[in-house]
Automatic annotation (TrEMBL):
This is Alpha/beta hydrolase family protein. Keywords: Hydrolase. It holds the Pfam family Abhydrolase_6. Gene3D superfamilies: alpha/beta hydrolase (3.40.50.1820). Residues 69-249 form the AB hydrolase-1 domain. Transmembrane segments: none annotated. InterPro entries: AB_hydrolase_1, AB_hydrolase_fold, Carboxylesterase_BioH.
Length: 279
């Protein structure tokens, strides 16, 4: 018996005996990110960055100058995972700001969720010049979509390997961890209480997405199924969909096709309304 099988068995037993208790423990685990150190290939980019701290303590890295592109990494991710995009955007004349999400990197907090990620984007946008683009990977992409519903303003938006709805992720995690039905329901309710928004509301089918954008997803993503990209595309009338044949959940960030698609989107969308975004 491997360790995960043993964990699921324990969760299943406790889930029948004490469903609220095990749901509480799983909620804490679900919302507490693990620390991950930059890989060797990220270090040169990290060394070339400028560390900035926003008004309420949120930490970020900055490169270059020019129209601002704001980046948000995924769960347990890092700004420098966007290395190819950052270098390409800076070379093309853009200024890039990449956030440490709440409870990640040097940003404060112990727990995080998609709502806190979205609020972090709003906080950053309030202190930066008008945004030419917002780019988010995985939960960062989901939070960028949500942030537009909370008032985030940007010329364009790019999601990479993002889920279309959060409820499916919650249920999938609870099933994977072996929780029986009653404990799964408690788990979802506890996550909703902590985040402050019903999980069913965190669904692009309910959003009004009124800016042009790009949806990127790899066909072989083992974490977020590629069908999620199709659902986002269906709900977002002014979006382009790029499905890469390979790239998994992380490797696609270093695909030159992704960089080219982002640069082409920025070239296609006029900058005439940047002043309006600031008003």
């Amino acid at each position: 018996m491997n360790q995960m099988t043993w964990v699921r068995g324990v969760n299943a037993t406790l889930g029948r005996v004490a469903p609220q208790l095990i749901a509480s423990r799983l909620r804490e685990r679900f919302m507490t990110p693990r620390t991950s150190s930059p890989r060797d290939w990220e270090l040169p980019l990290l060394a070339s960055s400028e560390r900035i701290t926003l008004r309420f303590g949120l930490s970020a890295l900055r490169w270059g100058s020019g129209p601002t592109v704001l980046l948000m990494h995924g769960w347990e991710g890092r700004p420098t995972q966007f290395a190819l995009l950052i270098r390409g955007l800076v070379d093309a004349g853009y200024g890039v700001v990449a956030l440490d999400a709440p409870a990640h990197g040097r940003s404060p907090g112990r727990e995080a969720n998609v709502v806190l990620f979205a609020r972090a984007l709003l906080e950053a946008a309030s202190e930066l010049p008008p945004l030419r683009a917002v780019i988010g990977h995985s939960m960062g992409g989901a939070s960028a979509l949500l942030a537009t519903q909370m008032g985030l303003r940007s010329e364009t938006l790019v999601t990479i390997a993002a889920p279309s709805r959060i409820l499916g992720l919650l249920r999938g995690f609870a099933r994977f961890m072996g929780l029986p039905a009653e404990a799964r329901a408690h788990f979802v309710r506890q996550v909703e209480k902590t985040a402050g928004i019903p999980a069913a509301h965190l669904d692009v089918q309910r959003y009004q997405l009124e800016l042009p954008g790009l949806i990127v997803h790899a066909e072989d993503d083992p974490v977020v199924p590629v069908g999620e990209a199709d659902l986002i595309h269906q709900a977002w009338f002014d979006s382009q969909l790029l499905r890469l044949p390979a790239g998994g959940h992380q490797r696609l960030l270093s695909d030159p096709v992704l960089l080219q698609a982002v640069l082409e989107l920025l070239e296609q969308v006029p900058q005439a309304s940047l002043k309006a975004l600031a008003s």
